[in-house]
What we know:
The protein is an all-beta fold. It is built from 2 helices and 39 strands. The strands form 10 sheets. It has a 5-stranded mixed sheet, with no helix packed on it. The protein starts with 11 loop residues before the first strand and ends with a strand.
Amino acid sequence: MRFCFFVAMGFTMSVSHLSALDLPQSFTCTFPASPRPLDNPIPPFVSLMIRGVQPTYVGTYKDLSINQESLWSQRPTKAYAWSPQFSPNGESILTVSDNYATILRASDGSIVKKIQHAGDVFTATFSPDGKYVATASWDRTSRVTRIDDGSTVLSTQHGDTARTAAFSPDSKKLLSTSNDKTARMISIEDPSQMISIQHRDHVNYGLFSPDSKWALTASDDGLLKITSTDSGKTLREIEHHAEVKILSISSDSRWIASISADRKVHLHRIDDPKIHYEISHDRFIRSAVFSPDGKYLLTASEDKTAKLIDVESGKVLQTIKHKDMIRTAQFSPDGQTILTASLDNTARLTRIRDGSVIRQIDHSGSVMGAAFAKDGRSIATHTWDNTASIISLDSDKVQTILHGNTVSAAVFSPDSKTLVTTDKSGGVHLIQRK
């Protein structure tokens, strides 16, 4: 194999004799432009070396992905891979790419099942008991696949695009939402038992309450509906002044958060319709999540801020400001710390108790996402400059892995020992945390 060389301005890399999947023996790669080109006028791996970081290469190309960091690399499809997740027991990994959802064996990366739809897959998720995978697709179908034998146990055909598919916490029901103005609540054991929830416009999102008693649906008709999972009766309709896009529910099932298109997040007390709070942002709100104990709500917005809200009073306790859009904001597993990731090239840890910054991690490119390990001892970030990083919170240790393509996601395993990453070439990689 020939070493890489650089061509000024174009940063073209020529590599020969790579025995990769579907690649010629000699080819040329050009690094993608950064979304902030003036901020990163040099290639990502040169930037890493200047900063004193020794990158490890991981990619779809076999010569780059067999290394100390990557336990295995797989390429189920050639299309953009995203939304990786581990099964509850950590034995399987699920990814989405184009019109496929792929189940891989975590131990060696072998493909267990490729679930194919006739259109792009929008949602793919494991059931809480780890026995099934649910998918929702542009082809108007939502499907439940059994993992152990790959059989389809449920398939429902909507009149328009299927948007989301969610399992009930007891893994007994599926909630499928669609642009056909309906959501369907279906028994997995007996798919003939189906309850149709009617809206007047696209149904964007659906989820179950933690106790599996209610189904919640959000629609472009401005309604949040709460439906009994037993009777199918509408228990409550909550009107908004704009389309309702995303929902979240607290772990104790007492509070619902809804994000509407008018840049507001709404807090609803389930057992008291009179209690309702509105918190505004200046631009689109990307997410709203509850703390593990249900006491706080955390928002992330394209207006460069994240807001910590006390759910009992609706009061904004903290406003965390970045210099660019915040991509993600989440709580640590112990609920004491907030993690934010921003296009300003930083990830930041903020203490809930007093709002102090515990640590800011600078990157050489826009930070597209960040996540805590389940044990709370590390965080993972992925950036536009083709890197994923595992950052120890017990020390200054940073494990940086350079991919061959833009990294779309990075997620820790349930035991926090490994990290799965996906990239835009369809690559899926398992990294050992050091």
